[in-house]
Amino acid sequence: MAKLAPGDLAQVLSKLPKQNSENVIVGYETSDDAGVFRLNERTALVQTVDFFTPIADEPEVYGQIAAINSLNDVYAMGGTPISALSIVCYPQKGDWEVLGEILLGGQKAMNAENVVIIGGHSVDDQEIKFGYSVTGIVDPDKVTKNSGAKEGDVLILTKPIGTGVISTGIKFEKASEKAKKAAMETMTTSAREASKIMQEVGAKGCTDITGFGLLGHSYEMAKASNVTFVMESESVPLLPDVLELIEQKMLTRGDRNNRAYVGETVKIKENVTKEMQSALFDPQTAGGLLISLSEDKAERFLNKMKNSKIIGRVEKFKDYLIEVN
Questions:
Q1: 292, 205 in Cβ contact below 8 A?
Q2: In this predicted model, what pLDDT tens digit does every residue of 83-113 receive, in sequence order?
Q3: Are 45 and 36 in contact (CB under 8 A)?
Q4: What phi, psi does 242 have (nearest 5°)?
Q5: Which value, in Å, is the radius of gyration of the alpha carbons in the chain?
Q6: Where are the beta strands (DSSP E) in 17-73?
Q7: What kind and span of H or E run contains 261?
Q8: How far, in Å, are 216, 225, 302, 308 from residue 68 at the CA level?
Q9: Cα 119 from Cα 84, distance rounded (Å)
Q10: Residue 128 and residue 144: Cα distance in Å, rounded?
């Protein structure tokens, strides 16, 4: 299931009346990963919701991925998830054992992160959809927002990209076992450790890479921070066989939607291949964190989070938001 086209959604949201509350630290107006609401001087709630159609053949793995995908929104804000509500769309005449496996996979993943599922909601739907609304807590002074990138920072990505392409490849039986295994591993890996280290080193800017792809979410972060991101395409880590699958046209609708979303705000150099461009726009599920850090803090982060990569830098705002070399 593809997300609504981000450009269309942005137009709808922009027409809604402003909500005035001194306790809203982060609302929908900023395109952050989750909302943040201050309870008192020391505690704020972090809230998010996400659900989608099956992304894995195994029901339990699908449930696990849905849980991780939802949890990562809270981790991207620097928060600690504490509880969740499940969202289930399932056919009334479907196989109830399959639904049980989906729920079990999600619960196992949530419980492994010390999150308790306290309820949920279900509807009869011929197309299966599953996910969670997650609530977390965070220190109001330590929220990591997508507006926190500063000129002179470097950009760190904590996971390789390409899950959308590989998922399409799996659907059409084009993906290798190596690619499938790598995609499932990255989608079932939580951002908890990366978030913890990010907080330890004092990060202020972060987003997680999901449906709008690396460039779509980078666009939102650069725009909110009023800076330009300069990315080195050769430094961006890819999952196995991603470029080869793109050559075989294993793309999602999100590729086109995400390109339209960023419009002319992204400047891509001629040396970047069409396949690599598609990888950068590829919608992700439970993708990595994109973190903006000063160079000294980045070194400390990378020493603790070994598989993360520096993929670019933050510069003073130019006539565009992102430059891809």
A1: yes
A2: 999 999 999 999 999 999 999 999 999 999 9
A3: yes
A4: -60, -50
A5: 19
A6: 24-26, 35-38, 44-52
A7: helix 253-262
A8: 20, 27, 22, 18
A9: 7
A10: 33
| Residue 136, both tokens | 């977390």
Judge contact between 85 and 67, C-beta under 8 A. Answer: no
Is 49 in contact with 131 (CB distance < 8 Å)? Answer: yes
Can you give the length of the chain in residues?
Answer: 325
In order of their start, the domains of the chain are 6-141 (3.30.1330.10), 154-324 (3.90.650.10)
Q: Per the confidence metrics, is the pTM higher than 0.90?
A: yes
81 touches 112 (CB < 8 A): no
Strands 35-38 and 24-26: antiparallel
pLDDT tens, residue by residue, 114-138: 999 999 999 999 999 999 999 999 9
Contact 225, 291 (CB under 8 A): no
The residue type at 310: I
Tokens at 241, concatenated:
């066989």
What is the distance between the alpha carbons of residues 81 and 50, in angstroms, rounded to a whole number?
A: 14
Can you spell out the DSSP letters for 105-170?
Answer: HHHHHHHHTT-EEEEEEEEE-SS-EEEEEEEEEE-GGG--BTT---TT-EEEE-S-B-HHHHHHHH
Distance of CA 288 to the CA centre of its chain: 6
